[in-house]
Amino acid sequence: MKHSDYTSSMLEQVRNSVKDIETIAEKETFEFFENCVPYDIVKKIGNVLITGCGDSYCAAVATKPVFENADTSTKTGMVPGTPTSAFRNIEFSRYFNTYGGWNPLTNERNALLVISISGSPARVNEAALRIKKHGGTAIAFTANPEGKLAGNCDCVIPMVLPDYDLAPNVTSYYSSVFSLMMFGFYMSKAKAQLSEKQAQACREGLLEYVKSYDEETMERLSVQCFELAKKWEEDGVDNMDFIGDGPDYATAFFGSAKMVESFGGLTTNDDSEDWCHINYFIKDSDHVGTFVVANEDSPAFSREVETIKLASMIRKHVVVITDCDKDIFPENVEIIKVPKPRSVWMHPLMEHIPLDFVAGYIGCWRGRMPFRSGEEPYCQDGNASRFRNSEIEIL
Amino acid sequence: MAYMETIKLETTFEGMHDVTQEVQDVIRKSGIQEGIAVINCNHTTAGIIITSFWDKRGHVDIQEELDKLIPLRYDYRHDFDTPTDAAGHIKSAICGTGMTLIVHEGRAMLGSSQGILFCEFDGPRSRKFFVKVIPDL
Amino acid sequence: MVFTKEYELVTGRDLLTKITSKVDEAIKESGIKDGIVVVETRYSTAGILKISRHGEEILDDIVREMRRIVPARINYYHQDSPENAAGHIKSALYGSSVSLILKDGRLYCEDSQDLYFAEYDGPRNRTYAVCVMGEKA
Amino acid sequence: MDRKSYDNSLLRQAMSMERYAKIVYDAVLPQVEKLPMKEVWDAQKIFISGCGDSWLAGIAAKAAFESVTKIETNPMRAIEFSRILSNKNLGYSPNTPLVILISFSGSGSRVVECARRCNKYGANTIAITNNPDSLLGKECRYCICTGLPKGDEYQPGLITYNASMITLFLIALRIGRVRNKISYLECEDMQKELLEHISRCQKEYEGFAERAFAIAQRWKDLKAEDFIGDYSDYATAYFGSAKVIECFGGYTTYDDSEDWCHINYFLSDPERIGRVVVANEDTPSYKRLKETIAAVKILQSPCVIISDAKKEEFPDTMEVFSFPKAKYFWMQPLVQHIPFDMIAGYIAEIKGIPNFRKDDERYAAMGDQRSGEIVVL
After folding, report:
1. Which residues pair with C39 in a beta bridge?
2. In chain B, which residues have their Cβ closer than 8 Å to the Cβ of C67?
3. What is the per-residue pLDDT across B69-115, written as a single tens digit (0 to 9) for each?
4. Class of the D203-357 domain?
5. Are strands C125-136 and C32-40 parallel, antiparallel or unpaired?
6. Do D288 and A391 touch (CB under 8 A)?
7. pTM score, two decimals?
8. Between chains, do C81 and D34 touch, taking CB under 8 Å as contact?
9. Contacts of B82 in chain D (CB under 8 A)
10. Residues D77, D50: contact at Cβ < 8 Å?
11. Intrachain domains D3-201 and D203-357 with the same fold
12. For chain D, how many helices (H) and strands (E)?
């Protein structure tokens, strides 16, 4: 069977990414954000905090640079943006400032962006209620504007989400990333850190980048990932290791989560430096698949190249997702070349696509139900009460 | 036509930086012979003063005496930043952050032992101040 | 004869603890009616003070003025902590012992003043000693 | 099987933790007391960075720094600090932020890179290293030597991890003391408690080792280990996973209690995945952790719980390592990594795999971490 003969809800989502993002972009214009969060609220934000569970946390890590560097320069920046932190959901709702104490001078300048497509997990609601308790503003990014989370937040950004059957979600990730990035531009515009024209240019640059994943590129990526996944299945790869730095760590993390959700594969992730100290020593190196996200303009690129060299010396299955040419890397690593955006911070929106393909194809072969639905013992918590009905405590 | 320039400097901790020459240079560059020059810095933990340059050890005395008057106490009400910052605000308020000079024959009218000092009350920091020269009508 | 007794206490931050009754107790226990009483603490960031009995607000004034004269600066040469460095100086300046006159079984200052243990770097566990010297009646 | 014949480095290090803690404490305290008051005051923000275990020591000490100093404290991966972090965060005010860089040898490229970046922008730096003459020791403004005797057995890192934590705690106490956030009495008590808590726990280790050995025999053929912990305890979880890899190269994964429910819950073959949860009673997410443990129970994975709560708090199918309560909750990461260190050490020994894949010459390719390129952004 050919790669395109395989279909699943997840693969559909990946294949339609470009079209879907364009649909989202049509609705999510600057005016749209202005209607959701008026200028005078955005202008007083002095501290951006972003949180969410699972993929949503990845989206937070992925988009942090957009908020921090309003000029969205490629290297670590100089132009003032807004101080921004991405939090694991449990860390924000239970630990943020719990021990150090809240600072009454800055509390009201805190804005928490809470991301949750369904808006139903207990933890995101807890986070929203917590920031409000301490005088900040809660802004929901959710596809369920009537849901619980929307009710608990001061402002709601109703995300547009194309409809697919239950599957490891890809649409939710790129729509969160896109919405967060757009919100970042909108905020910088409102705070006069970006001019009208610059903000528009950021948006257009982003859409141009989305378009660069044209049919031909998607076809190439699909084929390459299909062959790769097939080879790995044949070689008995049973553990996957993901490496990325800064916003690319989000891609690595997201990719690793998709493998788990799609077929329950064992995964781990790390940055390019710590990988050399720890994960380098994982046994059975012939059966470990390694993905490294290494883009040319990333400030950590030179370290990533060193790490890839090291990995290629001990591991058979090393794959580099990169926007630069092959020759800089050792010969025995497989290069998945992805389009190069105008600025390096745009990458997280699309560069996860190869990882999704791999997860999707392996998912088809292993015949696992998405999220193990109906499978024992997982189904004993079929309605996910482990996170929907978790007790809310507001500290 | 009035003329303005921004002067940048890198200060040291509690440093006293001689900026007389820089100010005179701006006045010279402006080409203005008669008028006034206004100096101001946009910082709250630094000051600009005129004092004697006859013995530069006197500059250390100024910082030391200011430190006695306004010690680097840790218990200021403004404790958001540091003791140096809190004391610096007070020192800066007392010294003033700028001054007006009379320009005559293309130069600031300063006494033979007078000089202009940029006083850093925190530091090291990147600082700047502005000089504007305004001609007589 | 000489009679010495040691007392313990837990102090608070900037706390003046009244110890008059303890001193009286020591005097009674010694049975001495005429002589000299010495109260001393051996800590270098604490002291013994003899303070007027005219109202609680005097205590506040004393604490505030002691802090004003010897502020808890961050730039002392002694680099333990600001309170500690200032505490050493306060202890040296304000004294860590007092001598009192005992006459007919009563302290000479009994009507007008109280004795206090002054803490300059608390809270801590402290001790002080009362020594009574003189003739038993 | 006789436990005694499966002696291993991690076990030996665990058993001598008390002795080394005393050495480090005595060496570090006088150095920490010399940190100047003004510079301690000037720190408006603290970063802690290092590679591998050293970074984890920073995470482990985050709660301590926040409770004792009340200053915002960010443990950061070395590469994030040196390459990704915006330079606006460095040197925006005199002597701030305070950057604490940890490296046992003091020679890794990345930490040296971090130190040079701080110097470029004016941040204040303290090195924690066992080698003050190293590049890191020289680049940093202050250097605190952990004073561990040269030539002893420190691999895989356990004593060094503890030394970093003890030093971090003592620095936190110094800052808290200077800034009057803790009183002299509290400071003295916390310092005393540091060593006492270690001694108190040390008494449990003989029993722990016995149980660890039994678990190691059951777990040696599992597919992977999955670690769960929140905030400071995330360091303990992550550290356990690092030891698994260093000791016998096992497959591992780790997450916090919330995200685990969203992602790692779905791992295949749950009955062949060993789960390790760090759940302390006083931690703000304790109830959440218990809910997560209930979800682990559904999956019927073999599970080890590390906690200071009573055994009865958890499902009886799970193996609970109960620690004595620490008087100050933030001291728990000092000791709680011990049970899994022992398990990892025993598994490696039972399987006959040497540390750091020394049996496989390909792994020697790693070479020297000092040779990496240093880029100062």
Report:
1. C98, C130
2. 75
3. 999 998 888 877 889 999 999 999 999 999 999 999 999 999 999 99
4. alpha beta
5. antiparallel
6. yes
7. 0.91
8. no
9. 41-42, 44, 93-94, 96
10. no
11. yes
12. 15, 10
